[in-house]
Amino acid sequence: MAVTELWLVRHGESVANVAATQAEIDGLTVIPIDIRDADVPLSQTGRDQAAALGAWWESNRAAVDVCWVSPYERARETLAIARGAAAEDPATVVDERLRDRELGILDLLTRRGVAELHPEEAERRRHLGKFYHRPPGGESWADVALRLRSFLRDGLAADHTSALIVAHDAVVMLLLYLLLPLDEARLLEFAASHTVLNASVTHLVRNGSAWEIVEFSDVSHLQVEGAPVTVHPGSPDVEPE
Q1: Which residues of 47-75 are buried (b: 16+ CB within 10 A; e: fewer)?
Q2: Coil, helix or strand at residue 216
Q3: Measured on CA atoms in the order 85, 88, 92, 94, is the torsion positive or negative?
Q4: pLDDT-based confidence at residue 215 (cuts at 50, 70, 90)
């Protein structure tokens, strides 16, 4: 067997999402949060979103053979809350290749912070483009795509026909880049006009060798359950300009 149906979920709103947005509004250079990225938890709104995702899970759990999740706390917390008492069925596999993109020296910097503290990196990004720019100590989108190729090679050949992946906005975008597939220009065009919302579900199916999007960044479950729909600007090196 091989996987022919995928649901891609972005984690619920995190405390770092909230802090980053406020830092941009306040014109700060550094996002004031003293938590390792892997340990950042959900905000209360994020927990409400994850609970609302539980309604989607109850309607779709019978169709999911396996759950793959990023090792980062905000992704694992989202899945755990959504699944509730059904946490053992189906199996959950934590895979570090699904972690969020690493930003190196630009981590925790706002747009103003990058421009003021590392103007040379801002210029390098303008020259190389968002897809290939790798901050010192961090990853480019191409680097993330490389580890996701490894994940897909293993995962899509596993003994399952359907899977749920709970991860991060960059991971969702780059899975689409690999599966549809897209080239650099089409990916950047898509990313500039499409946002992976917190606790959203993106649904893909495979017909023969081709993958197709059934729904992108669906948040109807949040609206039905009365949970907030949140949009946060990300790192200046991640979000579309």
Answers
A1: bbbbbbbbbbbeeebeebbbbbbbebbbb
A2: strand
A3: positive
A4: very high
190: Cβ contacts below 8 Å, ≥ 6 apart: 173, 176, 182
Q: What is the pLDDT of residue 11?
A: 98
Cα 209 from chain centroid?
24
DSSP 137: T
Q: DSSP readout, 6-52?
A: EEEEEPPPBHHHHHHHHHHHHT-SB----S-GGG--B-HHHHHHHHH
Q: What does DSSP assign to residue 227?
A: P
**Type of residue found at 146:** L
Q: In what order do the strands lie in the sheet with 162-167?
A: 91-94, 66-69, 162-167, 5-10, 201-207, 210-218
Place of tokens 């990853």: 139
Give the whole-angstrom CA distance, residue 43 versus residue 82: 15
Share of the chain above pLDDT 70, in %: 95
- CATH numbers and ranges of domains, the chain: 5-225 (3.40.50.1240)
Residue 41 CB neighbour total at 10 angstroms: 16
